[in-house]
Every structure is written in C-alpha cells, then in structure tokens.
Specification:
Distance between the termini: 24 Å
Structural class: alpha+beta
Number of domains: 1
CATH topology: Structural Genomics Hypothetical 15.5 Kd Protein In mrcA-pckA Intergenic Region, Chain A
Number of strands: 7
Shape: globular
Largest sheet: 5 strands, mixed
Strand content: 25-35%
CATH class: Alpha Beta
Order of helices and strands: EEHHEEEEE
Strand order of the largest sheet: 1-7-6-3-4
CATH superfamily: RNA-binding S4 domain
CATH architecture: Roll
C-alpha cells in the first residue's frame, strides 16, 4: 500500500480533486467514476459523493493508495 499525506492549503479539498491532485486518478472524470463505482472510502466507509469536502483528519483509501488529509498547521 502506498501512503500519502496531503496538507491542506485552504479550508477544504473536494474528494475528486484530491484524487486527481495526487494522481490516484488519471483525470477528474476518472476520479468521479472511481467514486461513483464505490472504489473510494473515507475513514473506512464507502463514499459516493464526489464533492465530499475534506477538512483535515480524514483518511481516504482508493485501491492500494491511502491518503491522510491534514489541516495546515496540524
């Protein structure tokens, strides 16, 4: 499993944007498809809302990728 840490530089990041920024998905459309297909979980629960706002403290899993979202300064 590949682990990433994503430090927010703003109030939040939307789930599909996060997957695209870290190249977990090849494009925004691919990220949205992964989410819609139930291939992404947030804090251990399948998440199907592509625009789910991540504000820090969450762990996102997609395939063999794990992303810890950290608030700036935290």
């Amino acid at each position: 499993m590949t682990r990433h840490t994503f430090t927010l530089d703003r109030e939040f990041v939307e789930l599909h944007v996060l997957l695209k920024l870290l190249a977990v998905a090849s494009s925004g459309g691919a990220a949205k498809a992964m989410i819609a297909d139930g291939q992404v979980s947030v804090d251990g629960e399948v998440e199907t809302r592509k625009a789910r706002k991540l504000r820090g403290g969450e762990t996102v899993c997609a395939g063999d990728e794990e992303i810890r979202v950290v608030a700036a300064g935290g």
